[in-house]
Amino acid sequence: MSNIETLDGKTTQSLEEKFAGKHGSLAFIPKSDVVETSEEIKIWCEMPGADSQSVETVLEKNILRISGRSVDHQTPEGYTLNKREYLVGNYQNTFVIPEEIDRDAIQAKVKNGVLCVILPKSKKLAPRKIEVLAE
Amino acid sequence: MLLNRLNSIESWDPFWEINQLERKMNQVFSNYRDRNNPQTYPPLNVWEGDDGIILTSELPGLEAGDIDISVEGDLLTLKGVKKPTDTGENDTFIIRERLSGEFSRTVRLPYHVNTDQIDAKFKNGVLTLRMNRPEDEKPRKISVKAE
Predict the structure, then answer these.
(1) CB of B93 within 8 Å of any CB in chain A?
(2) Rounded Cα distance, B102 and A9, in Å
(3) What interface predicted TM-score (ipTM) does this complex get?
(4) How far is A7 from chain B, CA to nearest CA, in Å?
(5) What is the pLDDT of residues B82-124, one digit of tens each?
(6) Is A127 part of the contact surface with chain B (CB cutoff 8 Å)?
C-alpha cells in the first residue's frame, strides 16, 4: 500500500503545451514493433485515441509514412484539469522499407488504439530455384 | 493545502518554505514521468468538477475485458495484463518498443466516490472513468446571518 498516490497538486500548463502553442501542434512518435518474415513486414504502432478515420498510412517509394490523430478528447465541460500525466496530440512516424513491396496487397487496420500494417513482399523478388537442364 | 498553511502559522516551522519548494519542484518533474515506469503505468489524466471526477488513461492494445477496475473507499485500482504483440513463432523483431506485462496502479481519490454510479468506457485504447461525488461529500455553502 506504500505506493498509493494522491491526486493533489494542481498541474498548470506544461512546458510541452507551451511549446506546442508556439510551434504548432505536437506530434508524438508512436511506440512501435516491427517484424520481418520471408513473406512480409508487419508494423504495429500504438496510437491511443486514434480510430480508422483519423489514421493515414502512405507508402511512397520505399518510405512508409504513418500519421494519426486522437479523436474526442475535449476537456469535459464544467471540469478542471487536476493531474496530467500524458498529453494528447497527433502521431507521426516514418519507416524505410528495405524491400520491394506488393503495393496492391498492403493491409492496415486500427484496433483498440493500435495500428497494424502488413506489407507483403513482392513475389517478383522472392528467391527462385532455377532448374538446371541436362544437355 | 489551506489547512497546512493555517497549521504552519500556529506553530511556525522554519523548514516549511523549503519543504514547500521541494514539493513544488517534485511536482514539476513528476509531470515528466517516464511512461515506461511500471509504477506509474498506465498514465492518467484527471479532471475534477462539482459533480465528480473524470479520469482517463491510455491503454492501447488492451481489450475492455482485460482491464480490472476496483474502488474501495477512496482508493481506485486499475489492474490488467498487456499482451505482447501477436507474432509468429519464428518472426524476428527489427524494432521492439511496445511494452507488455502485468500492471497495477492504485491512486487515492480526493473523496469517497459513489461506487454505484461509476461509468467506465473503453474506446480506441483510451479508458474513461466517470465517478460521481456523493451529496454529503459536496462542499456546503454556509450562509452568514447578520445579527
Answers:
(1) yes
(2) 28
(3) 0.75
(4) 6
(5) 998 888 777 889 899 998 999 999 999 988 888 888 999 999 9
(6) no
